[in-house]
Amino acid sequence: MENSNKIFKIKGLIKHYDWGGKTFIPQLLNIPNPDKKPFAEYWLGSNLDEQFEKVPYLMKVQDVEKMLSIQVHPSKEVARIKYKEENAKGIPLDAPHRNYKDENHKPELLSPLSEFYLLHGFKAPVAMDKILKEVSELNFLQQLFKGADYKALYTKVMTIPQEEVNERLRPLLERIVPLYNAGKLNKGNEDFWAARASLTFNMNGNTDRGIFSIYLFNVVTMHPGQALFQDAGLPHAYLEGYTMEIMANSDNVLRGGLTPKYIDVKELLEHVKYEPTVPDVIAGHSSGTLEEIFVTPATDFQLSRIKIKKQEGIAIPAKKTDIYFVYKGNVDATADEQTEHFSPGDAFLAVPGTVVHFGSEEEAVVYRASEPVTT
Ligand SMILES: [Zn+2]
Collapsing DSSP states into helix, strand and coil, what is residue 346? Predict the structure, then answer.
C-alpha cells in the first residue's frame, strides 16, 4: 500500500564537539547525559531518509559554552575555484589543513534561544577610532586606521610576529584578567571576552592573536526571537548561548584565531571583506499571521519562528520540503486526514504540497526551515 502520509517525524544528529554545553540539548531532546558529554549541536536536514528530497540547508540547535573560532566563509565563486585547486594539489578532503571541503558557500542565520553573544563584523569607523584610543595597548594601531583602512589594520594584527603579539597584549591581560576573575566585567564588553579567551586559548605561554579581533569586531548581545544573518566574507565568532541556526549545506570555514584548529592567515586575509558592519538584528517580520519569517538575501534557506497560542491555529503550506522543530509546548499537526502529536524536542518533515494545520492547548513555539518562495 502506498504511504499517503504528508508529515513524518524525523530524528537529527547529535554532535559532541568539546565546546558544547552538557545540559541544554539533552534536556531539550529529553535524553539522559550520565557521562556529562558535551552536546554542542543537534543537526536537522543532513540525514534525511532517502525517500525524501534532499534539502539545500542544514538547521541546527547549538549550545555554545566555550567560545568558537573567529571565522569567515567564502563566496560560492571562491569555493568552486579553491575546492578544485586543493583537489589538484592532492590535499585529502579530511586533511586538517584542507580549507575548502566542498564547492558551496555558507551563508548563516542565527536566532537565539537564550541571551546570546557573538562577534559580528568590523566596528564602524567611529567605534573603531574610539576603542583604538581608549584601550592603551591598541594605541599603536591608531595611525594605521587613518582613513578607515580596515585592510591595513586587520592585516597588521594578523601578521605581526607572535612575540610581538605576546608583548603587546601582556599588559592588557594583566589589567583585565584580575577584573574578569573578580566578576567585574560584563558580557557586553570586549574586555570580558578577551580575558576569557586568554584563559581558554593561551598555549605554551603564547597569547592568541584572535584577542585583537575581539576589540576590532562588534560584540553583539542578542535575545530570543531576534535573528542575524551572516554572509560570505563577514568575520564572526560565537561567544556564548543557545541558538537555532540555519545555513547552506557547506563545511567551508577559514579560521582566524581562538581555536586549536587549523588557521590559515593568508587565506583568511584574502577572503575577509574589509568594511564596517552595523549589526542588522532582525526583530522578526510579522506577516499578519503567527509566523515570523526572518527575511534574508539567502536563496538556500528561510527560517521562521511560529508562535501558536492556545486555541489559535495556523495553517502553513509547504512549497518544498519543510522541516519543523518543536521548541516549546505540545502541538498537533494535521495534514489532510493525518494528525500527529509532537512534544518539545520533536522534529518532523512536511512533504512538498502539504498544508500543515497547527493547533495547541498551550503556548507553543515551533521553528520552520524552508526555502524562500521565488516567483
Ligand atoms: Zn560561521
Answer: coil
